[in-house]
Amino acid sequence: MLLEDLRNTREDLERLEQAIAERSLEDPKHSQSNRAVDLYKDNDGSRLREIQSISTGDTFDEFYKQLNNIKDFHKRYPNEPVENLERAYKRRAVGEDAPFPSEIDTMFTGEEAFGRYFDMNALHEDYINLPGSKRRITYLQYLDTFDEFEGMPRPDKLKDQYFQYLGNLATYLESFMRRIKPLEDLDRLFISFDEDFLKAWEKDEIAGWQLNTKPTTDGPATEGTGEGIWCPDCEKEFKNDNVYKAHLTGKKHIKNAEARKQRSADGGVTSTNGSSNAATSVHRLKEKAVAEREHRIRKLAAAMQTERSDTRANVERKQGMTDKERQQELAALYAETMDLQSADPAANDAEDQDEEGKVYNPLKLPLGWDDKPIPFWLYKLHGLGVEFPCEICGNYVYMGRRAFDKHFGEARHLYGLKRLGITNSSMFRDVTGIEEATELWRKLQLDKKQESTASDQVVQMEDGEGNVMPEKVYYDLQKQGLL
């Protein structure tokens, strides 16, 4: 059966060469080519023996022998399907049980645009909420500086929140690279990152994680931001040299210095033979783990500079767009998707059947202008799956942040505030509870009354006998003729 196997392999190669213009199937092509080359080499001589048996022996005996082998095979495997190579390599439509398009649709988020841009909004929120983060940077600034870690104080880098943030950032960048470069050997690239880090760590060349050196100022060596003087006893940074000198004479600093000296006497420092103690080793291991993640993030960011610059340009473009322009862009994307589906005759037939029958909407998606469910990516992009209830509107639930923000100026919400006796609605934005609204209105009225009373008592009047009284009381007594 080697000739049949060879014929089947050649047919498989021809089908692959025919479909290579439409689909990327290089790996099966190479594997089948190697298999065909091995059969042509005929290292064990079985191909030559089979050719001799067919050409020299009885033709019908060989034919019936192979036929019996085929029948025996199908008796042992009666449910084995027939291999149809034409169907295996034919491009299938979206609705014909083709797993490839659906996997691509779910592989990237709407913001990533099939691997063109980063989607780091959640990571940006995590960064600005870190304990040691003193600056509230924008998303654009974060895209430029997410691989720069010099601004974070060194002690804050050893906290669990920062370590978890680095892990999430490195995991996202690694996952994004695997998704946009599926044919590259990324495992070897990541191993090279680790090897480079270990070499640099042994040479103490990792930026921001070098061992303590001699101080260049009157105080200890500065850690963290590098803008002041670092006190290792209190683990605190001082911007001014005079403040640092005054701090050295404080009771708290003296107490911390004695405690640190006691820990050093108990074995907290290196011994005379140069061996590190257990506490120092554990501390250095923590620093190594954090430095390893920072090094990997720098390498991953450097390997995806094109996607990073494209993401920044896309964010700048969206920030400069009006709401109408955004709606037009989404409509254009939706129309492009519909055009791709309508280009397939099978898709057109499916649309005709859907128009005649009931609309299939298992996810309960909102309907668009054509009375059909909107795409799921558009549903996720606008956050329409998030519920925002409003008690003032009669516990009405708004789907999506945009509809929720818009309803504060609509008649339903304004009528609910009016029923509560509230007239100034501009002060009650983002207030949805009845109790909260009434309490806030009561407080505003009380503050307004107190402000009015205080303004009346600002001007003081004095009568002929030297009695001091508010202006209003003075004029009332004067009208009554009591002065």
Model description:
The protein has a two-stranded antiparallel sheet with strand order 1-2. A two-stranded antiparallel sheet has the order 3-4. A two-stranded antiparallel ribbon has the order 5-6. The chain has 22 helices and 6 strands. Residues 213-222 and 267-276 have low confidence and may be disordered. By secondary structure, the chain is mainly α. It folds into 4 domains: 2-88, no CATH class; 101-266 and 282-320, no CATH class; 321-381, no CATH class; 387-456, no CATH class. The relative contact order is 0.05. Helix 1 (2-19) runs antiparallel to helix 2 and helix 11 (186-202) crosses helix 14. The chain has helices at 2-19, 26-41, 46-56, 59-76, 85-88, 99-107, 121-128, 139-145, 154-157, 160-180, 186-202, 241-248, 251-268, 278-303, 305-319, 323-342, 345-356, 376-381, 401-406, 411-419, 434-456, 471-479, and strands at residues 229-231, 236-238, 387-390, 396-399, 460-462, 468-470.
